[in-house]
């Protein structure tokens, strides 16, 4: 009986994760194209996606690499972009903290925006789920998200390798960032954070190695957190009404 409930949770997770393919496939394909245009091989592009598996951080790192930024700056910038995952992890601890170490490690690897958002909503909706059922649901959501991310990355890399450099795909990277940022501006706090980070990044554009982007990012996070504290935003991925 317990085994059937765990499998049922997994299948429900797969079903709930399928709509995310509409986001995952285009962005992974675009990353593959842009990465090969930036000089990475197909294997390097795939390795990038497998190791990092975080779209925003991957695009950030790639942008800095194309501008010859030092590796340390690239790593710091990618980590700064992924700081939200630490908050996701803390939020999931009450639900999955009792898992064995190896399962927590697997969860940490597959913890991305989509797996977090879907899982938290499900856990809040079904408070009676066991730890095993919760993990099965999490892995169910990850199934149609993470492997297709790798496959679409390879498809994009192959396509990018076939596109001649003179085709001029430099515009793709900033457009990708705009497409990722736009849907995220859901509350006044998000919009304040975006505005402050943009203004600071432009004001400190003269700082070498694109460190102005990090200054802007940190300033935006501080402004967004302060806006949240003053009641101008809402907790991520929570229901607004009962």
From TrEMBL:
Keywords: Cell membrane, Membrane, Transmembrane, Transmembrane helix, Transport. InterPro entries: Brnchd-chn_aa_trnsp_permease. Belongs to the AzlC family. It comes from the Bacteria. This is AzlC family ABC transporter permease. GO terms for cellular component: plasma membrane. It is a multi-pass membrane protein. The chain crosses the membrane at residues 20-40, 135-161, 167-185, 192-211. It is found in: Cell membrane. GO terms for biological process: L-valine transmembrane transport. Pfam families: AzlC (PF03591).
